[in-house]
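Good morning,

Attaching, inline, the backbone tokens for the sequence recovery test we're adding to the shared suite. The designed sequence is right after.
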């Protein structure tokens, strides 16, 4: 199973918390009321032990053996993530009584879906009524919405009134009319509505849709269609936004970046000069007017003849401006890479050993740890770094051996400032006299480095530095998509 999907928006941090409030239970974790009452009688320490139990008995209680076996199988396939360990987070000391983050479980997922589907109807009711309002099903309602939007746009302080007015008109008044229903029409046509007297009906209680009922399957139908709408809308937005913003076409993306930068600076400096109330009013009226059936029919009938030619002309002008003013022919980035040629002294003669990315000096971590140098034996096997390519044809010997020795603060070496530019290890005095001194002893003996004079006792290794230029390798869009 893949560790993750590249370029996908997925919550890879902490799982979404599952909340529980005092005095309320969670049917997804307590399917049996008798079992839940028994667990509530346990102490906090016992409850914590049960929560931390790998079997997670609360989530599996009340489910079939097949569901439990499938859950155990998925727990073996799907790797469990310890978020606090992976992200190096401090332990959460908050009580697990209020916040929990259970892992993936088929029975828990099924139970939560049933609960969610039986309660999601209010969202679909609001969505349906909003669609009817914006598509002019009842013109008086849409005109009322335009009137409210006009007042809010002309006087933005009325935004503070909307939540309270909505709660008053859509919650309190309907709830009162349920308990105090108007009298039925009579022959006398008495239209007086008396507010006196006791309530005539019980209060209305919102309940979830019963499973296997028509409302339950209506919610499931609307949830299915909403998932399809979200997926289609997601793909459409990405298809429109991604090409000009992901720098696959660098000229176009640079133009978008330039326009966004200029707009940001202009709005940061002079936002008070714009008539925001008038702009919001015009935008609101245009948005709601576009939902009228006649306006949509007019747009569809005249799109090819009136809308497409101006858009094509604007696109051609933008392309001409981009090709004329956006210049992206700067040379690729170039850097210098290095490799060290190591030679080893055996039986009084130097033998070519290998080419290593580090100099393997006497105080290097590899030498101190007693490890052998790592590298390749031939120049031809040395490759450019990933994402780079060679900028010239061959390696060049670095004639500034003294400079790189001083930059790396290499000690106990002899430096050749002429000739082949070898940097050779020096042997401490106790090692030269026959005592086997350690590398740690050689740290404090003698100078840091010395120019070669041929009189100092040399050590086992010597190296010299080769350099070569590399430049950034361009990646085509086909290779990027395949990768």
């Amino acid at each position: 199973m893949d560790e993750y999907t590249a370029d996908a928006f997925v919550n890879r941090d902490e799982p979404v918390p599952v909340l529980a409030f005092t005095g309320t239970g969670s049917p997804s974790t307590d399917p049996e009321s008798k079992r839940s009452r028994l667990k509530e009688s346990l102490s906090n320490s016992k409850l914590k032990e049960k929560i931390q139990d790998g079997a997670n008995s609360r989530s599996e209680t009340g489910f079939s053996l097949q569901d439990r076996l499938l859950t155990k199988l998925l727990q073996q396939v799907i790797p469990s993530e310890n978020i606090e360990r992976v992200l190096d987070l401090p332990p959460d000391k908050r009580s697990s009584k209020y916040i929990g983050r259970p892992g993936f479980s088929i029975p828990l997922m099924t139970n939560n879906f049933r609960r969610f589907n039986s309660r999601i109807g209010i969202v679909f009711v609001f969505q349906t009524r909003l669609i009817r309002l914006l598509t002019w099903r009842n013109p008086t309602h849409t005109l009322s919405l335009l009137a409210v939007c006009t007042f809010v746009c002309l006087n933005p302080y009325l935004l503070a009134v909307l939540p309270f007015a909505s709660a008053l008109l859509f919650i309190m008044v309907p709830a009162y009319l349920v308990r105090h229903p108007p009298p039925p029409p009579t022959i006398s046509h008495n239209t007086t509505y008396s507010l006196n007297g006791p309530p005539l009906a019980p209060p209305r209680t919102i309940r979830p849709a019963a499973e296997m009922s028509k409302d339950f399957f209506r919610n499931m139908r609307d949830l299915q269609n909403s998932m399809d709408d979200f997926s289609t809308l997601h793909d459409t937005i990405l298809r429109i936004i991604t090409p000009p913003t992901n720098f696959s076409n660098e000229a176009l993306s640079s133009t978008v970046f330039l326009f966004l930068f200029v707009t940001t600076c202009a709005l940061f400096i002079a936002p008070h000069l714009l008539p925001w109330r008038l702009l919001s009013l015009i935008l609101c009226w245009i948005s709601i007017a576009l939902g009228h059936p006649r306006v949509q029919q007019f747009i569809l009938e005249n799109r090819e003849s009136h809308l497409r030619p101006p858009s094509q002309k604007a696109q051609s002008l933008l392309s001409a401006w981009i090709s004329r003013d956006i210049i992206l022919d700067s040379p690729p980035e170039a850097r210098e890479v290095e490799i060290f040629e190591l030679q080893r002294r055996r039986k009084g003669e130097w033998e070519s050993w290998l080419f290593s990315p580090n100099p393997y000096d006497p105080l290097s971590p590899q030498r101190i740890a007693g490890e052998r140098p790592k590298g390749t034996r031939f120049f031809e096997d040395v490759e450019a770094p990933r994402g780079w390519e060679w900028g010239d044809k061959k390696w060049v010997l670095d004639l500034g051996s003294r400079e790189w020795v001083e930059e790396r603060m290499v000690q106990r070496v002899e430096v050749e400032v002429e000739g082949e530019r070898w940097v050779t290890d020096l042997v401490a005095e106790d090692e030269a006299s026959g005592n086997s001194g350690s590398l740690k002893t050689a740290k404090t003996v003698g100078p840091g480095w010395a120019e070669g004079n041929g009189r100092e006792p040399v050590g086992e290794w010597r190296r010299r530095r080769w350099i070569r230029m590399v430049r950034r390798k361009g990646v085509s869009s086909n290779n990027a998509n395949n990768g």
